Amino acid sequence: MEKNRWARIESAVRLTHLYAGLFLAPWLLIYATSGFCLNHSRWINERLGIASPRWDVLREVPFVPDDTFPRTPEEQAEAILRYADLEGPHFIVDQPTAQEMIINRASGGGDYRITWRGLRSLIIVEKQQPFSSYRLLHFLHFRHGYGQPYFVQIAWAVLVDAVTISMWLWVLTGLYIWLRRPRQRIAGGLCVAGGSVLFIVLVVILCL
Fold first, then answer.
1. Number of domains the chain contains
2. Across the chain, what does the average pLDDT equal?
């Protein structure tokens, strides 16, 4: 009876270990690849000849605010983006004035820079060019948080949480599988101890 109970637990642990990894494989590959690129950014930039992006003007849109135009910068930014058909995750650049506001609209295909100039009654829409899969990797790596009320952003944040929880599960299930293998306890124990000591030493040195 006891043996069957442990067998069921071990089967559940293995299935969790397996299927979580299969489902989250795209996100794990993205973070693994982008992490490598960030760690070797100079070498990759030189090898692939990746230059800094430029801002190209896509269009200029006449815009004269009426009585319904909001008063707070955050609401004004949303209204401007909505008028320019660019609703999505964004932030206001620097300190806006009554006559000018610059908004960065994040996009994996290249960020948009939307400038509203009140004196000219004009919205200028620019985009980073050219498209770069390397910058897309960086974009996906740093998508996080629940601060933007858009479905795609929230869904990605939920999946990042799932990846982080899965990493905890993989560590815990790995420890469980190791402890259930008496013949591997010495070798596994040396790996746990060696990795932990190296981690602590490196963290201490980095804090000096």
1. 2
2. 88
